[in-house]
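Field: COMPLEX_INPUT
Field: COMPONENT_COUNT = two
Field: RESIDUE_TOTAL = 646
Field: MODE = joint
Values follow.
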Amino acid sequence: MGDQLVFMLQLVITGVAVGGVYSLMALGFVLIFKASSVVNFGPGELVLFGAYVAWATILPMKMPLWLALPVTLGVAILLGLVIERGVLRPLIGEPIISVIMVTFGVASVIRGVLNMTWGSDTRPFPGLFSQEPFHLGPVPVSPVHLWSFVWVLVLLAAFSVFFKFSLTGTAMRATADNQQVAQSLGVSVKRVFALSWCIATVVSTLAGIILGSVRGGVDFSLADLGLKVFPVVILGGLESVAGAIIGGVLIGVLENLSGGYLDPIMGGGVKEVAPFVALVVILMLRPYGLFGKVQIERV
Amino acid sequence: MRCGGFRISYRSDERIFDTAVPVIAVVVLIVALGLAPRYATTYWLDVLNRIGIAIIGALGLNILVGYAGQISIGHAAFLAVGAYSTAILEANAGLPFYLALPLAALVTSGFGLVFGIPSLRLRGLYLAIATLAAHFITTYGIIHWESMTNGVLGLMVQPATVFGLPLDSDARVFYLIYALVVPATFFTRNLFRTKVGRAFIAIRDRDVAAGVMGVSLYRYKLLAFVISSFYAGVAGGLMAHHSRILFPDAFTLLVAIDYLAMVIIGGLGSILGSIFGAIFMTLLPEVLKLSATSLTGVYPNAFGLIASVRDIVFGLAVILFLMYEPQGLARIWLRVRSYWTLWPYAY
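Field: COMPLEX_OUTPUT
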């Protein structure tokens, strides 16, 4: 096994692990879109919120882990409810640009509140997983990456099952398809919206916690990661949970491979821009992604 | 008292100013602008300059988003291209300012043409995401093409010279900026009296139907991007001369969101809306700074919190406007004006 192969495998494995976290963030996005056709243009801020609240409960407030995690998730659910009831419900039926702008507005408010409460310094995040790398063949893998990927798989499997087989999941899919018909069949659309936003915030919080432990610290740059959600959901398809998984891993691997191989040529920073170049290519060739529903335009 | 519109000729229908009052108002405004540098402090001249630049940028964005209905989050990228092109054309090609600025605006239009191509295949959400990608790719290009743009170290811009007079003070740049704002506004107003403007509005309302009726979607969607980025190029070039040093940091995604907010809070599809929105968004941080200074007695930490308060206030402004007045400040102004003209009647 040459060094070149080890290098590439390392990139691929890191990519898969990072991609797992992207998949998780994308899942939050897809859930909101699936249930309410609302696009959330501030996924980064939701992740940031989750990471900071988790940090705040674990470190300054010194809650034990078994209490801190549920409290964090509870706060996340509350945020989802507040956003949905306070901001998105009044805007049902408005043109899409209003909804896009309002999610930017919400993201801005979250960012401001976080900045005001906890400042913008980097906060060290407690390591929830051990730091010793173990070896997958010749390639060193950090257990944090492995654990995060495992957790991501578990969550994604749980959500796939939820959407496909449970009554609530089916109700959510029905609402996404056609709100009026779903309402006429007895689905409470308001509850579906609230539920979808709550799940989205919870999932973003989990992504934030995982990202925090992977990076060892929380700071405002986590929000920029949030925008990487877009290449993932476009690749996978805006309404597809399976697409979020596969898209996330693919984008993670693409990012790392292009960073690893193109950085020396292009002088750095390729990792940041490669997903967006891929995004443009995908939009031109296959805008609905791998698994998305094709939308038919009617005059 | 006017009641409704009674037109008996096409010419009267197309007039920009129906009565004498708006003409007088505009003349008074222009005279006031001309006298402003004499009476305003440097600080407020700087604010007025930034408002002027924002007006041009907001007009461009409103043409694209408000009138032609193409959602674009890439405006900051176009501003950046305009600013850096102006600076590079002046520094490297040695062009005088009055050639560099139009040429830079044309370069930006070319850019807009390229990044408008996705609009032929995508609409709404997908187009917004494509423009988001365009923004990041452009920013990457600017940061990493260091031989031309100096990357994150910043690019210095020499003051423009007009007829041998260097424009190196805020007052002189003020005249330059507003000498372009006034024609930009009139040009935009005129655009919507023409076939092109009507085509844009048709595309916004129902593009498939417009295509069926014979409006060439291909030509007019691209034209919308081209015109809008021309405005952005001009605004960017003026930014280069206003701040005299360019950093890639001045063109982040937040700037694009600020411009979108200007257009939405001001009023989509309204020229007055673009102007109001530009004024509102530029004055917002200034108002916050003023209140922070006055509150420093009570909250000594007030100044440090400005950034976060600004974010919160901005977000709340966007949310509240979209919830309660989706048609923006222009609509509020229209209501005030109708109340005034029609009193004591309700309509």
